Amino acid sequence: MPFIITDPCIETKDSACVDVCPVDCIHPRKDEPEFAETTMLYIHPEECIDCGACVPACPVAAIYESVDATPSSQKDLIEANAIYRNGDAALIAQAEEIVKAHIASHPELMAVPAAERQAAHATH
Ligand code: SF4
Ligand code: SF4
């Protein structure tokens, strides 16, 4: 079961998780050209080794430990994490479309500051 990045990463995107990931499965990194164009970061579900190092590193608690642990309001972003591939413009666009749809369909969550958004997942 891979780890999943969810919506507190939107607007935060500080790459703290990238710095601690032992297998470089979180993209885009700051040194990759895609970084400027993406709304959030994504975890490659097949490359993630479930080590858990990224969870405490994230300042906004955006990362859940599994598909099952991901709250219902964030389930759409599981697919965004799974689809995203650095260097593939079509797949990047597909992942970003899911994120844009998520933003559009969850105005109540997006109105919560990123640092408090994870706590709001339980009630939205
Ligand atoms: S759980 Fe480990 S391997 Fe998976 S994304 Fe987080 S730091 Fe990387
Ligand atoms: S540490 Fe959290 S907020 Fe920062 S890039 Fe990673 S998932 Fe996004």
How would you sum up this structure, described in words?
The chain has 124 residues and is mainly α. It has one domain: 2-Layer Sandwich (Alpha-Beta Plaits). Helices cover 36% and strands 6% of the residues. The protein has 6 helices and 4 strands; from the N terminus they run βαββαβαααα. The protein has helices at residues 16-20, 54-57, 76-83, 89-105, 107-110, 114-120; strands at residues 4-5, 26-27, 42-43, 63-64. α3 (76-83) packs antiparallel against α4. The longest helix has 17 residues, at 89-105. It is globular. The protein starts with a strand and ends with a helix. The site of one iron/sulfur cluster has 14 residues, from loops.
Topology record:
Elements: E1 4-5, H1 16-20, E2 26-27, E3 42-43, H2 54-57, E4 63-64, H3 76-83, H4 89-105, H5 107-110, H6 114-120
Antiparallel strand pairs: 1-4, 2-3
Helix pairs in contact: 3-4
Bound molecules: iron/sulfur cluster (2 copies).
One iron/sulfur cluster binds next to helix 1.
For this entry, give a set of tags.
single chain; 124 residues; Alpha-Beta Plaits; two-stranded antiparallel ribbon; 6 helices; 4 strands; binds iron/sulfur cluster
How far the N terminus sits from the C terminus, by CA atoms, comes to 24 Å
- Along the chain, the helix and strand elements come as EHEEHEHHHH
Low-confidence spans: none
CATH architecture: 2-Layer Sandwich
Radius of gyration: 13 Å
Number of DSSP E strands: 4
The level of helicity is 25-40%
Biggest beta sheet attributes: 2 strands, antiparallel
- Any ligands, ions or cofactors bound here, and which? iron/sulfur cluster
Q: How would you state the average pLDDT, rounded?
A: 96
Class, according to the CATH hierarchy? Alpha Beta
User: Would you tell me the structural class of the helices and strands?
Assistant: mainly alpha
CATH topology: Alpha-Beta Plaits
Strand order in space, largest sheet: 1-4
Task: Tell me the number of helical segments per DSSP (H or I, 4 or more residues long).
Answer: 6
Shape: globular
Assess the beta-strand content as a share of residues. Answer: 5-15%
